[in-house]
Amino acid sequence: MTLIRRTFTAAAAALLMAAPFIAQAQDIKPRLIRFGYGLNEQSNQGRAVKLFAETVEKASGGKMKVRAIGAAALGPDVQMQQALIGGAQEMMVGSTATLVGITKEMALWDTPFLFNSTKEADAILDGPIGQKVMDKLQEKGLVGLVYWENGFRNLTNIKRPVTKLEDLEGIKLRVMQNNVYLDSFKTLGANAIPLPFSELFSALETKTVDGQENPYNTILSSKFYEVQKYLSITNHVYSPWIVTVSKKWWDGLSKDEQKVLMDAAKASRDFERKDTRDEAAKALADLKGKGMQINELSPAESARMRDKLTKVNAGIAANVGMDLWTETQGALAKLRGGK
Ligand code: TK8
How do the domains of the chain map onto residue ranges? Predict the structure, then answer.
């Protein structure tokens, strides 16, 4: 009897003592971060999100957990942006081009031929101008952390190689949901059709559109070579991705937690740019191997296209503001002069 009672009391005491720990364990349930993106897991975007997730978990000692959700399973860019603003999703990475409807200054990055090299892109995006544009997101309920590289965009289609401007005539070309892209390709004579990226593969497959434009990496990782024949090297614009956070959620984090995310974002940026550039350097050979027919534009045709495209510049300058436009042109001139 006494023994039983004593055992019981000991067990009860042990339970009582454990109770606060149980409560505490519940309190430190890891913060869950739903991180959405549009491309496949096996893409430069997917690999960098994975690195970000691992870095955050490690740096937070497991207190912050990133659930990476790719292939637009949480919706296309525009839908995820709204989920972030509303606080229903914590993080995403996507094109700056799809943010123009929210923050008009983002259209600066859609300027055709704005950057001549990745070096120029890094300098401007990571410098005060890139920061200024990114900070504009805050008043709209988003926090921008870093820019990643999507890359220089090139044309693919199923009709014919584009060797001169006139070859674009009548080609149904998917563009991002953004007026600068729409105007740019209309100006070039294509039949530009805005579509979310998540609908692009099937639109190409069913020939709802004849072509599209994206960096080599994406043409490869999204298997566009299966449904596209011609790749014409135009490098018509450098396209950044941007890692964004829901401001509603961000504002509830401690300074330490914000630092973990910011540091991991920077690490992921450096990893992503290197990975993307390494992959892009080999991608043309890969795409040729997959059966794509690749052509370069002659310098004269390239110049004609460039000339025509710069007609959209005045509209972009008016949209993003003349101050930002001239500041950017000045910074680029300085970079180029300092070579
Ligand atoms: C992925 C998109 C993609 C972009 C596009 O979500 O839409 O063509 O280049 O990278 O952001």
Answer: 2-104+111-335
Would you say the CB of residue 197 lies under 6 angstroms from ligand 1? yes
Q: What is the pLDDT of residue 167?
A: 97
In degrees and rounded to multiples of 5, residue 76 shows phi and psi of -65, 170
| Model pLDDT, residue 21 | 46
Indicate whether residue 240 lines ligand 1 (CB < 6 A).
Answer: no
Q: 297 CB contacts (<8 Å, ≥6 apart)?
A: 162, 163, 164, 232, 233, 234, 305
Tell me the best of 154, 197, 198, 201 to mutate to test the pocket of ligand 1, counting ligand atoms within 8 Å of each CB and taking the most: 197
Ligand 1 pocket member 214 (CB < 6 A): yes
- pLDDT for the residue numbered 1: 42
Query: What would the CATH number be for the domain defined by 2-104+111-335?
Result: 3.40.190.170
* Protein residue with its CA nearest to atom 9 in ligand 1: 214
Closest-CA residue to 114 (of 300, 264, 320, 338): 320
- For the whole prediction, is pTM greater than 0.70? yes
Is 176 close to ligand 1, i.e. is its CB under 6 Å away?
Answer: yes
Q: For the chain, which residues score pLDDT lower than 50?
A: 1-2, 18-25
Q: Could you tell me if residue 272 is left (phi over 0), alpha (psi between -120 and 50 degrees) or otherwise beta?
A: alpha
User: Residue 136 and residue 18: Cα distance in Å, rounded?
Assistant: 49
Residue whose CA is closest, atom 1 of ligand 1?
38
Cα dist from 190 to 19, 201, 244, whole Å: 68, 19, 32
Provide the pLDDT for residue 9.
54
| Separation between Cα atoms, residue 260 and residue 196, nearest integer Å | 32
Question: Using CA atoms, how far apart are residues 196 and 200, in angstroms rounded to an integer?
Answer: 7
| 153 Cα nearest atom in ligand 1 | 9
